[in-house]
Amino acid sequence: SGALLRRVPCDAAWWPRAMVRVPDMNGNGSDELALLGANRRNGLRAAQIRDSLTGASLGLVPFDPGYTPVKMLALPDLDGNGASELAVLERSTSIYVDGDVPAQAEVRDARTGLVLRRVDFTGFAHQEGKVDFAALADSNGNGSPELAVVGNQACCSSSALVAISDALTGAPLRQQFLPRPEYGARVSLAALP
């Protein structure tokens, strides 16, 4: 019907950038919402966890202040505590060297906020918003999903780069070079079942 079911509030200073669904964490049978963003007052980069039924705050998961969050994914429980994990693709805010912008995926427990892994990705050109991120099915047999990043390659004008690493160990698994998209075009990545 298109009718509004409920509003889930955020702090007035919160500048949301992405949102993902997280399986129920507080036992009320309703999924939670993880709202990635930044606090305009203090610059804190974090995900607010909100109950989608009541709007109540269930926690705050902070991310590395030296990076700008680009996209967030929900991952299955990797540390065995019964809560999902949040993976955030982040671009470095530091000075660029030879056009290479360090990017990382920071994997944190959605319940405790503890860092489980930082997965480094290098070789991507600095183009804000022109990278994408997806979780792929386990391909190396350790039961953990893989993280894939796609973007324009820093060193070459003729190709784009897809880099795939294990979400649990952070180990790089493979890279795939693709024909470079039209200049200025956004690149996207989707995991197919």
What features would you describe in this structure?
The protein has 193 residues and is mainly beta. It contains no helices and twelve strands. The strands form three sheets. Strands 1-2-3-4 form a four-stranded antiparallel sheet, with no helix packed on it. It is globular and about 50 Å long.
Helix content class: under 10%
Q: How big is the Rg?
A: 17 Å
Number of separate helices: 0
Give me the strand/helix succession.
EEEEEEEEEEEE
Quick summary of this structure?
By secondary structure, this protein is an all-beta fold. Helix content is 0%, strand content 47%. The protein is built from no helices and twelve strands.
Q: Secondary-structure map with pairings?
A:
Blueprint lengths: L13 E9 L9 E8 L5 E7 L5 E6 L4 E9 L9 E8 L10 E7 L5 E7 L9 E6 L9 E7 L6 E8 L5 E8 L14
Antiparallel strand pairs: 1-2, 2-3, 3-4, 5-6, 6-7, 7-8, 9-10, 10-11, 11-12
What keyword list fits this structure?
four-stranded antiparallel β-sheet; globular; 12 strands; 193 residues; mainly beta
